[in-house]
Structure prediction request, 250 residues.
Amino acid sequence: MVELERVSFNFGSSWALQDVSLALGKGEFLFLTGPSGAGKTTLLKLLYAALPLRRGTRANVCGFDLKRIRRGRVPLLRREIGVVFQDFKILPRRTVFANVAMALEVRGMARHVIERRVRAVLRVLRLENKAYEPCVRLSGGEQQRVAIARSVVVNPKLILADEPTGNLDAGLSRRLMDVFKQFHVYGTSIIMATHSAELLDTVPEAKVLHLQDGRMCTDDCQVESQPGPLSRSLDEEGPDAPGVPSGGRR
Ligand SMILES: Nc1ncnc2c1ncn2[C@@H]1O[C@H](COP(=O)(O)OP(=O)(O)OP(=O)(O)O)[C@@H](O)[C@H]1O
Ligand SMILES: [Mg+2]
Prediction:
């Protein structure tokens, strides 16, 4: 699904990534960790071709070769990928429903299918009561959930999530991780950037790639440990069973 070999990226004279390699198969989960400025967002941007790949021995994502991809084919690559941006990138004046539905509309889906899938995802992310609110009136955590809803509603082959639990409280962080884990079980590959060491424990089978100053760290590298909402949520919350949007096992 994703295969990178010795990929590097520089902004002007400074390196954001140096010789990063990773391999992620179908349905695999990978946490991307490292301190602020380590290169996590840069790596995710390269994967959905928001930054041009200049250096690397190999770079394949969802069957597309990033070294040779033409501009015109970038939208085809992005159709396979659900992205949760660190800064959400939702349209503030449009409603929650419209923001999530948009991802399906550009794929030319029938209206009744769009209605059903958007409602299912909004229910899972506890946004059904906000469906017709303009996003500008939502809290930061609610906006983040809209961004997540939009990324998963298309049943992507690959989800790239940049700090997706950053603005969420304990219960929602747990619920969100359950949503991502269900996609993972159903065969979606996931790369999640996070500062939080405790998130890593929620997906024990996940691979972990630590970045530090744009380089991959070896085993002696320290993962940042921050008290976050998730440990509390695991203690406080009982079992919950979020649904997965239609599409079934692939
Ligand atoms: N547009 C840009 N122009 C110049 N330098 C940039 C740009 N974007 C990022 N950088 C630099 O590249 C490095 C990696 O940034 P990146 O955003 O990938 O870090 P990050 O690991 O996502 O950090 P955070 O955890 O704070 O989100 C940083 O040193 C940053 O200052
Ligand atoms: Mg970042």
Q: What stands out?
A: Residues 170 and 229 are 4 Å apart (CA to CA).
